[in-house]
Specification:
It is a single chain. With about 325 residues, this protein is an alpha+beta fold. The longest helix has about 40 residues, at about 45-80. It has helices at about 45-80, 90-100, 105-115, 155-160, 300-305; strands at about 120-125, 135-145, 150-155, 165, 175-180, 185-190, 215-220, 230-240, 250-255, 270, 275-285, 295-300. The protein contains 5 helices and 12 strands. It has a domain at about 115-305: Thrombin, subunit H (Beta Barrel). The relative contact order is 0.12. It starts with about 40 loop residues before the first helix and ends in a 6-residue tail after the last helix. It has a 6-stranded antiparallel β-barrel with strand order 1-2-3-6-5-4. It has a 6-stranded antiparallel beta barrel with strand order 7-8-9-12-11-10.
Length: about 325
């Protein structure tokens, strides 16, 4: 639709410069006569302006009313729905609800997950006439005590082996050498020739405050199966044990009832925090059979650490 033309005002006389406008017959011109208001030249524009002004006024009052309503609601809400203060009973109820609906790991699971990165499988191998491996001669367990690949195990696991192989928790295999022995406690210290990049050493804990009834876990490779975990308690302290052949007497041992079998030898005995308190070294069986009947022995970690040249607690 075409827009109406808009014109600016003009100062030119209506009938040309210097010409006087004729007066209607019978009327005299006066100097102070007030001319009547001429009709608007733009009636449509004036109507639009008036309509716009009315709409703006309505909009302004609508906004004012809405703001007043919101302000009244903000003052009234706290009175209708005051915020209740959190009490200790509320906290206790929330904690209880969480415990009822969340399955927490058992202490045994925590201990196992903590120690397992440091547990290794140890195999003692022999050699044939040509210097090649001729099969397994012993299977046992070890525990990493220094992240450079220093491993504690039992001396009887490795003493007759011509080749010692260790398998770390991540599956890496390596040969190892004996770097120290403590025959009176049936202990040997190994140095692995190759180690994982992220090898984790076990945490060792003093046995000074242990007592019968404390929960413990033995982790190792019984009969080569594993890693396997068995849980029990400390049955006694400062026990003596004589080997089935009667050739060796060991003293100051930790007695425990967590299941242990051939292959557990050299493995860690740990607390429920996964900290090593001893090295599993023997099981007792009156019939001299190589099966567990509920009595196992471990060398206290203080003795084991001294075998590796580490200071006692």
């Amino acid at each position: 639709m075409r827009r109406p033309a808009l014109y600016s005002s003009s100062n030119r006389p209506a009938q040309g410069a210097g010409e006087a406008q004729a007066q209607p017959p019978g009327e005299a011109a006066t100097a102070d006569a007030v001319p009547s208001t001429p009709p608007s030249r733009f009636p449509r524009i004036a109507r639009l302006a008036n309509r716009l002004a009315r709409h703006q006024l309505y909009l302004l009052w609508s906004v004012v009313g809405l703001l007043a309503l919101l302000l009244a609601f903000s003052f009234a809400s706290p009175l209708r729905n005051p915020v209740r203060k959190l009490t200790q009973e509320d906290i206790n109820a929330a904690v209880l609800k969480t415990l009822e609906t969340t399955v927490l790991p058992s202490p045994g699971t925590k201990a196992y997950d903590t120690i397992i990165p440091s547990v290794v499988r140890i195999v003692g191998l022999g050699k044939d006439k040509d210097g090649k491996e001729d099969g397994e001669r012993s299977v046992g367990t070890g525990v990493v005590i220094v992240d450079k690949g220093i491993i504690l195990t039992n001396l009887h696991v490795v003493q007759n082996a011509q080749i010692i192989k260790v398998t770390f928790a991540d599956g890496l295999e390596s040969t190892a050498s004996i770097t120290g022995v403590q025959p009176e406690n049936d202990l040997a210290v190994l140095q692995a020739h190759k180690i994982p990049d992220d090898l984790i050493a076990a945490t060792m804990r003093s046995t000074a405050d242990l007592a019968p009834g404390d929960q413990v876990m033995a982790v190792g490779y019984p009969f080569g199966i594993g890693p396997s975990a068995s849980q029990g308690v400390i049955s006694g302290l400062k026990r003596n044990f004589r080997s089935p052949e009667g050739k060796q007497m060991m003293s100051n041992l930790i007695q425990f009832d967590a299941a242990a079998n051939p292959g557990n030898s050299g493995g860690p005995l740990v607390t429920m925090d996964g900290e090593v308190i001893g090295i599993v070294t023997a099981i007792f069986n009156p019939n001299q059979q190589r099966t567990f009947v509920g009595i196992g022995f471990a060398v206290p970690i203080e003795n084991a650490a001294s075998a590796a040249g580490m200071p006692p607690f």
